[in-house]
Amino acid sequence: MFPYRDKNPSGTFPFVTVAIIVVNTIVFIYELSLGRNLEEFIYLYGVIPAKVMHFFSVPGGNAKSVFMPFITSMFLHAGFMHLIGNMWYLWIFGDNIEDRLGHFKFLAFYLVCGVGASIIFLFFGSKSLVPCVGASGAIAGVLGAYMITFPKARVMTFLILGFFWTRVELPAIVVLGFWFVIQFFSGTAAVASRDVAGGGVAWWAHIGGFIIGIALMYLFPKRKPINQWRRSGIRGD
Q: For the range 190-194, what are the long-range contacts, defined as Cβ-Cβ under 8 Å and sequence gap of 24 or more?
């Protein structure tokens, strides 16, 4: 099941969503230019669970090098498909959440979801020396927020059944609920097999980001969507 667009127009241009996509793309192009220095760059700016836990157990460490990656890791990606997959989901679902929260609150929401997702992952992979990178945790928060805010929004989806595929129109709660179920079972299987990264995928960062996104959507003050203002004939200042 792969969504390719939704039928849920937003009333404002998603400046922050577009900016995040542009910044991630520019950073990835920079990653490609690093060549053999890329690994050092990823280890410097990715979240390394064991390094974070060591900081708390042994005083006197460099706090900046430990905590800065919680932000920088959200703009790094391990490969082209990793980048495309994340930015695709953000492009489909991010504009409506930005429209509902407003530009600045959406940026805060996105960053909190990303940081929170990394913290959740620490609890499941505290001994890992592998850097965790990617916008997946933050975008999972967007998906969780979208699911509870627009559960009946229609999402155009490619449904793949073995060697056959078709296009279907499904409510967001089905598409995103299915996505979460896959993440949850994959994360549970990874813990059972003691492979928390799940073959390179930080499943629990996805799960944590999704749940945090739902919680924050209840806590953040929301505005009435601009397209509803227009339909009701109400004008803003």
A: 191/124
